[in-house]
Amino acid sequence: GKRDDNLNLIELAKEKGYIYVKTREELSKISADSDKILALFAPSHLDPASSRKEQPMLYEMVEKVLEILSKDDEPFFLMVEGSQIDWEAHDNDIYGVWKEVVEFDKAVQVALDFALKRGDTLVIVTADHETGGLGLSSGDYRVDVDKIRNFKKTTDWIMANYSPKDREKFKKAIEEYFGLTLSDEDLNRISMSKNPKIELGRILGEKVSVGWTTTTHSGTPVPIFAFGPGAENFTGFLDNTEIPRIIMKLTGYSLQYPLLKEPVTK
């Protein structure tokens, strides 16, 4: 919400010596010798990976921050999140999920290359939950990857630029940006749905043998991958609360979670 103390935190950060960057180009020009950086590339969230231009990609941010954090050879902890994988899965958008996962994978590769070069860096990759209950195959147990490669836009973009009420125009847009043809039954499903965007995502998924079980978070276990010193501690099934405990132990600290003194009644 709007601040009620009239403070401009960006200007305050500048006064305290922070370099403020807001574009991909500005980030690329930041020197590795810089110490204090405030990088805000959007008023809210970044554009989807599939259509991002002026804003940096996740791997570019990781490259730059690793340059800066490693310049003095001091220990550091860095958390990187590919948050919009979750958003696209909420929309049951296979193209959006694919593009976001590829972007995240590139960021992981940057981290692994850094760790391989140094030999003293632990890289952990996991998720806080699964979303959408994505199923890769249906019927003949084959995903039509070639068709997915022809997708050019997210369902969010389509619904923002075309209306299912204009059936012919909407149908042509799907043919142009997805290479697929919607039947009259498909169009009826979309127009009658409480959430046309998600219904479109499910229909497109069906046409490439991809299925979804929910539009929310699922209870499916998520993997934990680790590489580097201490990676052997991240094996088997772990409760998510164990991950920070192990990290703290490896850094020489302990972590004690607070206990509620009073039962939660509301």
TrEMBL record:
Superkingdom of this protein's organism: Bacteria
SUPFAM superfamilies the UniProt entry points to: Alkaline phosphatase-like
Cofactor binding: number and manner: Binds 2 Zn(2+) ions.
InterPro entries: Alkaline_phosphatase (IPR001952), Alkaline_phosphatase_core_sf (IPR017850)
Alphabetic keyword roster: Magnesium, Metal-binding, Phosphoprotein, Zinc
Binding site for Mg(2+): E81
Cofactor requirement: Zn(2+); Mg(2+)
Record GO terms (molecular function): alkaline phosphatase activity; metal ion binding
Phosphoprotein in keyword set: yes
Residue sites binding Zn(2+) per the record: D86, H90, D128, H129, H217
Protein name: Alkaline phosphatase
Organism, as annotated: Thermotoga petrophila
